[in-house]
Amino acid sequence: MTSDCYYLGVDGGGTKCRARLRAPDGTLLGEGLGGPANIRLGLDRAWASIMEAIQAALAQAGLDAAAYPRLHVGLGLAGIVTAADGVRTRAAAPRFASVAAETDAHAACLGAFSGRDGAILIAGTGSAGYALINGQGHAVGGWGFEVSDEGSGASIGREAIRVALRAHDSLAPETGLTRQIRQRLGGSPAAIVAWVNDAGPADYGRLAPDVLAHAAKGDVVACTIIAKAAKELETYIRHLHALGAPHLCLMGGLSAPLTPWLSPWARSLLAAPEGDALEGALLMARLNIPSPIAKSALP
Protein backbone atom coordinates (compact mmCIF):
# COMPACT_ATOMS: atom_id res chain seq x y z
CA MET A 1 0.00 0.00 0.00
CA THR A 2 1.32 3.44 -0.95
CA SER A 3 0.28 6.70 0.72
CA ASP A 4 1.61 10.23 1.03
CA CYS A 5 1.93 9.67 4.76
CA TYR A 6 1.33 7.14 7.53
CA TYR A 7 0.73 7.53 11.27
CA LEU A 8 2.39 5.26 13.76
CA GLY A 9 2.03 5.08 17.53
CA VAL A 10 4.39 3.37 19.97
CA ASP A 11 3.67 2.43 23.57
CA GLY A 12 6.95 1.51 25.27
CA GLY A 13 7.51 0.21 28.79
CA GLY A 14 10.13 -1.60 30.79
CA THR A 15 9.08 -5.04 29.53
CA LYS A 16 7.99 -4.54 25.93
CA CYS A 17 6.84 -2.00 23.39
CA ARG A 18 4.03 -2.08 20.88
CA ALA A 19 3.56 -0.24 17.60
CA ARG A 20 0.38 0.43 15.60
CA LEU A 21 0.31 1.77 12.03
CA ARG A 22 -2.68 3.54 10.51
CA ALA A 23 -3.42 5.16 7.15
CA PRO A 24 -4.52 8.82 7.05
CA ASP A 25 -8.17 7.69 6.99
CA GLY A 26 -7.65 5.66 10.17
CA THR A 27 -7.46 2.24 8.53
CA LEU A 28 -5.37 -0.17 10.62
CA LEU A 29 -2.43 -1.31 8.51
CA GLY A 30 -0.24 -3.24 10.91
CA GLU A 31 0.94 -3.84 14.47
CA GLY A 32 4.28 -4.95 15.88
CA LEU A 33 5.95 -5.94 19.11
CA GLY A 34 9.43 -5.15 20.42
CA GLY A 35 11.51 -5.45 23.58
CA PRO A 36 11.91 -3.06 26.54
CA ALA A 37 11.71 0.62 25.58
CA ASN A 38 12.07 2.48 28.87
CA ILE A 39 14.61 5.17 28.00
CA ARG A 40 16.22 4.70 31.44
CA LEU A 41 17.61 1.47 30.01
CA GLY A 42 19.57 3.62 27.55
CA LEU A 43 18.44 5.33 24.36
CA ASP A 44 20.27 2.85 22.13
CA ARG A 45 18.52 -0.10 23.71
CA ALA A 46 15.15 1.68 23.76
CA TRP A 47 15.38 2.66 20.10
CA ALA A 48 16.44 -0.87 19.11
CA SER A 49 13.23 -2.16 20.68
CA ILE A 50 11.15 0.63 19.15
CA MET A 51 12.52 -0.07 15.69
CA GLU A 52 11.87 -3.79 16.14
CA ALA A 53 8.19 -3.00 16.77
CA ILE A 54 8.00 -0.40 13.99
CA GLN A 55 9.55 -2.70 11.42
CA ALA A 56 7.15 -5.50 12.37
CA ALA A 57 4.17 -3.14 11.96
CA LEU A 58 5.48 -1.91 8.60
CA ALA A 59 6.04 -5.46 7.40
CA GLN A 60 2.41 -6.33 8.11
CA ALA A 61 1.46 -3.46 5.82
CA GLY A 62 3.88 -4.56 3.10
CA LEU A 63 6.17 -1.61 3.79
CA ASP A 64 9.84 -1.23 4.67
CA ALA A 65 12.39 1.44 5.54
CA ALA A 66 11.59 3.30 2.33
CA ALA A 67 8.42 4.49 4.09
CA TYR A 68 10.32 6.26 6.89
CA PRO A 69 10.23 9.74 5.27
CA ARG A 70 6.41 9.48 5.11
CA LEU A 71 6.02 8.19 8.66
CA HIS A 72 4.66 10.47 11.40
CA VAL A 73 5.53 8.82 14.72
CA GLY A 74 4.14 9.33 18.21
CA LEU A 75 6.09 7.81 21.09
CA GLY A 76 4.66 7.19 24.55
CA LEU A 77 7.63 5.86 26.52
CA ALA A 78 8.36 4.97 30.11
CA GLY A 79 11.30 6.92 31.50
CA ILE A 80 10.48 10.23 29.82
CA VAL A 81 10.07 12.64 32.72
CA THR A 82 11.31 16.05 31.56
CA ALA A 83 11.15 18.02 28.33
CA ALA A 84 14.87 17.31 27.88
CA ASP A 85 14.13 13.58 27.88
CA GLY A 86 11.74 14.08 25.00
CA VAL A 87 14.29 16.14 23.07
CA ARG A 88 16.99 13.47 23.53
CA THR A 89 14.60 10.74 22.45
CA ARG A 90 13.51 12.55 19.30
CA ALA A 91 17.12 13.41 18.42
CA ALA A 92 18.00 9.70 18.37
CA ALA A 93 15.23 8.84 15.90
CA PRO A 94 15.73 7.87 12.26
CA ARG A 95 14.70 10.41 9.61
CA PHE A 96 10.94 10.09 9.97
CA ALA A 97 8.55 12.77 8.69
CA SER A 98 7.99 13.84 12.30
CA VAL A 99 8.44 12.49 15.82
CA ALA A 100 6.57 13.40 18.99
CA ALA A 101 7.77 11.88 22.27
CA GLU A 102 6.08 11.93 25.66
CA THR A 103 5.73 9.77 28.74
CA ASP A 104 3.69 6.58 28.42
CA ALA A 105 1.20 8.01 30.91
CA HIS A 106 0.60 11.00 28.62
CA ALA A 107 -0.14 8.67 25.70
CA ALA A 108 -2.42 6.54 27.86
CA CYS A 109 -4.37 9.60 29.01
CA LEU A 110 -4.71 10.92 25.46
CA GLY A 111 -6.01 7.56 24.31
CA ALA A 112 -8.38 7.13 27.23
CA PHE A 113 -10.20 10.39 26.51
CA SER A 114 -9.47 10.77 22.78
CA GLY A 115 -7.48 13.93 23.48
CA ARG A 116 -10.04 15.60 25.74
CA ASP A 117 -9.41 16.63 29.36
CA GLY A 118 -9.29 13.71 31.77
CA ALA A 119 -7.05 11.73 34.06
CA ILE A 120 -5.79 8.21 34.55
CA LEU A 121 -4.75 6.42 37.71
CA ILE A 122 -2.60 3.33 37.29
CA ALA A 123 -3.00 0.75 40.05
CA GLY A 124 -0.80 -2.22 39.31
CA THR A 125 2.46 -3.36 40.84
CA GLY A 126 3.10 0.36 41.28
CA SER A 127 0.79 3.36 41.17
CA ALA A 128 0.81 6.75 39.48
CA GLY A 129 -1.66 9.38 38.35
CA TYR A 130 -1.71 11.64 35.31
CA ALA A 131 -4.10 14.39 34.24
CA LEU A 132 -4.36 16.17 30.91
CA ILE A 133 -5.95 19.60 31.35
CA ASN A 134 -6.12 22.16 28.54
CA GLY A 135 -3.23 20.43 26.78
CA GLN A 136 -1.05 20.46 29.88
CA GLY A 137 0.08 17.20 31.46
CA HIS A 138 0.22 16.84 35.25
CA ALA A 139 2.03 13.81 36.67
CA VAL A 140 1.19 12.82 40.25
CA GLY A 141 3.02 10.20 42.30
CA GLY A 142 4.85 7.30 40.72
CA TRP A 143 8.10 8.02 42.56
CA GLY A 144 8.82 4.34 43.09
CA PHE A 145 8.11 1.60 45.61
CA GLU A 146 10.61 2.82 48.17
CA VAL A 147 8.97 6.21 48.72
CA SER A 148 5.67 6.23 46.82
CA ASP A 149 3.28 3.84 44.98
CA GLU A 150 0.46 4.10 47.52
CA GLY A 151 -2.49 1.81 46.84
CA SER A 152 -0.41 -0.46 44.62
CA GLY A 153 0.02 -4.22 44.60
CA ALA A 154 3.53 -3.85 45.99
CA SER A 155 2.35 -1.70 48.88
CA ILE A 156 -0.49 -4.14 49.63
CA GLY A 157 1.99 -7.02 49.73
CA ARG A 158 4.39 -5.10 51.96
CA GLU A 159 1.60 -4.26 54.40
CA ALA A 160 0.51 -7.91 54.48
CA ILE A 161 4.03 -8.99 55.45
CA ARG A 162 4.28 -6.28 58.08
CA VAL A 163 1.00 -7.35 59.72
CA ALA A 164 1.89 -11.05 59.45
CA LEU A 165 5.04 -10.37 61.45
CA ARG A 166 3.12 -8.30 63.98
CA ALA A 167 0.64 -11.16 64.37
CA HIS A 168 3.55 -13.52 65.05
CA ASP A 169 4.59 -11.18 67.87
CA SER A 170 0.98 -10.99 69.18
CA LEU A 171 0.84 -7.29 68.28
CA ALA A 172 -1.93 -7.76 65.70
CA PRO A 173 -4.75 -10.26 65.13
CA GLU A 174 -3.82 -13.69 63.79
CA THR A 175 -5.99 -14.58 60.79
CA GLY A 176 -5.99 -16.86 57.80
CA LEU A 177 -4.15 -14.18 55.82
CA THR A 178 -1.37 -13.63 58.34
CA ARG A 179 -0.77 -17.38 58.63
CA GLN A 180 -0.76 -17.83 54.85
CA ILE A 181 1.68 -14.97 54.27
CA ARG A 182 4.17 -16.41 56.78
CA GLN A 183 3.83 -19.88 55.29
CA ARG A 184 4.29 -18.57 51.74
CA LEU A 185 7.51 -16.80 52.71
CA GLY A 186 9.14 -19.61 54.65
CA GLY A 187 7.20 -19.75 57.90
CA SER A 188 9.55 -18.07 60.35
CA PRO A 189 10.35 -14.37 60.79
CA ALA A 190 13.99 -15.17 59.97
CA ALA A 191 12.94 -16.70 56.64
CA ILE A 192 10.77 -13.68 55.88
CA VAL A 193 13.61 -11.26 56.60
CA ALA A 194 15.86 -13.28 54.30
CA TRP A 195 13.18 -13.11 51.58
CA VAL A 196 12.88 -9.34 52.00
CA ASN A 197 16.62 -8.91 51.44
CA ASP A 198 16.28 -9.91 47.79
CA ALA A 199 12.67 -8.94 47.08
CA GLY A 200 11.62 -6.26 44.63
CA PRO A 201 8.28 -4.52 43.97
CA ALA A 202 7.02 -7.32 41.72
CA ASP A 203 7.72 -9.89 44.46
CA TYR A 204 5.67 -7.91 46.96
CA GLY A 205 2.98 -7.38 44.34
CA ARG A 206 2.53 -11.12 43.88
CA LEU A 207 1.13 -11.27 47.41
CA ALA A 208 -1.72 -8.86 46.60
CA PRO A 209 -4.02 -11.59 45.15
CA ASP A 210 -3.76 -13.47 48.48
CA VAL A 211 -4.87 -10.35 50.34
CA LEU A 212 -7.76 -9.76 47.94
CA ALA A 213 -8.88 -13.38 48.20
CA HIS A 214 -8.94 -13.27 51.99
CA ALA A 215 -10.68 -9.89 51.96
CA ALA A 216 -13.44 -11.40 49.82
CA LYS A 217 -13.96 -13.96 52.60
CA GLY A 218 -14.17 -11.26 55.27
CA ASP A 219 -10.71 -11.71 56.82
CA VAL A 220 -10.47 -8.70 59.12
CA VAL A 221 -6.76 -8.06 58.48
CA ALA A 222 -7.12 -8.42 54.71
CA CYS A 223 -10.16 -6.13 54.68
CA THR A 224 -8.24 -3.48 56.62
CA ILE A 225 -5.32 -3.62 54.17
CA ILE A 226 -7.53 -3.39 51.07
CA ALA A 227 -9.66 -0.62 52.55
CA LYS A 228 -6.49 1.36 53.27
CA ALA A 229 -5.26 0.85 49.69
CA ALA A 230 -8.60 2.08 48.34
CA LYS A 231 -8.41 5.21 50.52
CA GLU A 232 -4.91 5.89 49.22
CA LEU A 233 -6.19 5.68 45.64
CA GLU A 234 -9.02 8.05 46.57
CA THR A 235 -6.42 10.63 47.60
CA TYR A 236 -5.08 10.53 44.03
CA ILE A 237 -8.59 10.61 42.56
CA ARG A 238 -9.54 13.65 44.64
CA HIS A 239 -6.40 15.53 43.60
CA LEU A 240 -6.67 14.66 39.90
CA HIS A 241 -10.30 15.78 39.90
CA ALA A 242 -9.35 19.02 41.67
CA LEU A 243 -6.79 19.69 38.94
CA GLY A 244 -9.71 19.88 36.50
CA ALA A 245 -10.17 16.33 35.22
CA PRO A 246 -13.93 15.77 34.88
CA HIS A 247 -13.52 12.00 34.72
CA LEU A 248 -10.83 9.46 35.47
CA CYS A 249 -9.89 6.03 34.14
CA LEU A 250 -8.61 3.54 36.69
CA MET A 251 -6.08 1.27 34.98
CA GLY A 252 -3.76 -1.59 35.85
CA GLY A 253 -4.18 -5.07 37.24
CA LEU A 254 -5.74 -3.89 40.52
CA SER A 255 -8.25 -1.50 38.93
CA ALA A 256 -11.12 -4.00 38.78
CA PRO A 257 -10.68 -5.65 42.20
CA LEU A 258 -10.18 -2.33 44.02
CA THR A 259 -13.04 -0.42 42.37
CA PRO A 260 -15.74 -1.91 44.65
CA TRP A 261 -13.75 -0.74 47.67
CA LEU A 262 -13.83 2.90 46.56
CA SER A 263 -16.30 5.36 48.04
CA PRO A 264 -19.40 6.14 45.94
CA TRP A 265 -18.14 9.66 45.16
CA ALA A 266 -14.88 8.23 43.77
CA ARG A 267 -16.66 5.58 41.68
CA SER A 268 -18.92 8.29 40.24
CA LEU A 269 -15.87 9.94 38.66
CA LEU A 270 -14.64 6.78 36.91
CA ALA A 271 -15.08 6.25 33.18
CA ALA A 272 -14.19 3.46 30.79
CA PRO A 273 -11.25 4.33 28.50
CA GLU A 274 -12.20 5.14 24.92
CA GLY A 275 -8.86 3.99 23.53
CA ASP A 276 -5.51 2.57 24.64
CA ALA A 277 -2.06 4.13 24.89
CA LEU A 278 -1.33 3.26 21.27
CA GLU A 279 -4.30 5.33 20.14
CA GLY A 280 -2.97 8.14 22.30
CA ALA A 281 0.43 7.85 20.66
CA LEU A 282 -1.25 7.89 17.25
CA LEU A 283 -3.04 11.09 18.22
CA MET A 284 0.34 12.56 19.18
CA ALA A 285 1.64 11.58 15.75
CA ARG A 286 -1.27 13.33 14.04
CA LEU A 287 -1.03 16.50 16.12
CA ASN A 288 2.72 16.44 16.75
CA ILE A 289 2.27 18.99 19.51
CA PRO A 290 3.94 17.43 22.56
CA SER A 291 2.60 18.78 25.84
CA PRO A 292 5.10 19.60 28.58
CA ILE A 293 4.90 17.60 31.77
CA ALA A 294 4.26 19.52 34.97
CA LYS A 295 5.83 17.95 38.03
CA SER A 296 6.54 20.52 40.66
CA ALA A 297 9.28 18.53 42.40
CA LEU A 298 11.39 18.44 39.25
CA PRO A 299 13.90 21.18 38.42
From TrEMBL:
Matches recorded under InterPro entries: ATPase_BadF (IPR002731), ATPase_NBD (IPR043129), Euk-type_GlcNAc_Kinase (IPR052519)
Pfam families linked to this entry: BcrAD_BadFG
Descriptive protein name: ATPase
Signal peptide, first to last residue: none
Domain ATPase BadF/BadG/BcrA/BcrD type positions: 8-255
Phylogenetic classification of the source organism: Bacteria, Pseudomonadati, Pseudomonadota, Alphaproteobacteria, Rhodospirillales
